[in-house]
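Q: How would the structure tokens look for this protein?
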Amino acid sequence: MCRMAEVSRDTSETQIKIKLNIDGTGKYDIDTGVNFFNHMLESFSKHSRFDLDISAIGDVEIDDHHTVEDVGILLGEAFNKAIGDKRGIKRMADAIVPMDESVATVAVDISGRSYCNMDISFKNEKIGDLTSDIIIHFFESFVSAAKINIYASAKGFNDHHKAEAIFKAFAKSLKEATKIEHDEIPSTKGVL
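A: Here is the predicted structure in token form.
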């Protein structure tokens, strides 16, 4: 089984190319033009063990919104393409990740339906060069395109730690949910 995908998107706002290998080792080459977002995606790749190449050129001179949103959409599309018919996957998983004074909890269901429930807030408008409220929109964009469910929450005082804990917990829960356990579609419907 080859669970890999290559996707691209070229609009008047962004030009993005993504390669994803679900069965990788956590190797990454990421350049989005938004440094803190790069850091979060690198952390996601490392802790999911998904190989991830992302090249994104966006209108960051305006702000980071279009770049982060479009990377979320395209990464979700790549995930949905790479996961295929979902035969044999565990499908549902969760993770709790502490990071210093913060802790994040993420549960996912690779259900073929999208739903995003995020219980997280940030104190500051920016985390490094990333607008903090766009983090939730990244997950909304990913989940919509990937056709998965996510429930995520984070508590803590440091915005950097909360954000990073969320990305790590998301990575760990997706890695677990994509594990091959058997040779059946994990649904009473017979399809996901």
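The CA atoms of residues 30 and 38 lie 6 Å apart.

DSSP finds four helices and ten strands in the chain.

Upvote if useful.
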